Amino acid sequence: MTPLGIVAGSGEVPLRVACAAQAAGRPVFAALLDGFADPADWAGIPHIRERVGAAGAILAAFRARGIRQLVLSGGVQRPSLLSLRPDAAGARLLARIGRAYFQGDDGLLRAVARALEAEGFEVVAAHAVMADLIPSAGQLGAVAPDAQARADIARAIAVVRALGAVDVGQGAVVQQGLVLGVEAIEGTDALLARCAGLRREGPGGVLVKLVKPGQDRRLDLPTIGPSTIAGAKAAGLAGIAIEAGGSILVDRPATLAAADAAGIFLLAIDPDQFKETMP
């Protein structure tokens, strides 16, 4: 079986992908991005640790092991050009990326994928290796949304799609029709922490996370897990809706158990169809 390379940022998904590939008998080698992936979590899995700008060392390590397929997974805070300090290969990739370095995350990741493909690699989706990361449409936990929550979801869908159209973010929090916050570069956990201080009296709000219009679905899909549930609970939210077939649900059993225990609903929705089913 052909080996798989993983460029790993923060979060659980890169490691889960590695473990799933290994369980299927596929050799894995990871490049852990310094400051994001924790080497202690990768004990027992072959890996190197390199800074973001060390593309030459990373690609050379993959080539030395016969790796041609790569998964790009995990959170990475975009470094400034001054701190990037690219090596020769990194400078070559940066030249290919060009102005996309200053675009939104989807624009940048598309450019990175194209640059890696020009280097002879194939970029594949995390869920191509671990299919059960992606939920189908439906109510995922024991708690169901009420009419107010469904109206807030519909409002959030419109907001997130407007954000996504200009490659800004994938999520928004809406309570009683009011937009408490939108996701930009800070990420979902920080969005929820910020919205905790903006909560209004009455029914709790909702977090909605969707794929950006035209997004490359191999890269940076909306992701939630147990930490998202904890943040939603602290923010006083009634529930979370994610895009069915286009969002990653990390550690499904633990996430659903946490949502049920917190009394938070969790839905996987088709954004186009959801409006039609509003009460």
Automatic annotation (TrEMBL):
It comes from the Bacteria. Residues 4-133 form the LpxI N-terminal domain. It is an enzyme of class 3 (hydrolase). Its EC number is 3.6.1.54. GO terms for molecular function: hydrolase activity. Residues 137-266 form the LpxI C-terminal domain. Pfam families: LpxI_C, LpxI_N. The keyword Hydrolase applies. Keywords: Hydrolase. InterPro entries: LpxI, LpxI_C, LpxI_C_sf, LpxI_N. PANTHER family: BLL4848 PROTEIN (PTHR39962), LPXI FAMILY PROTEIN (PTHR39962:SF1). This is UDP-2,3-diacylglucosamine diphosphatase LpxI. The gene is lpxI.
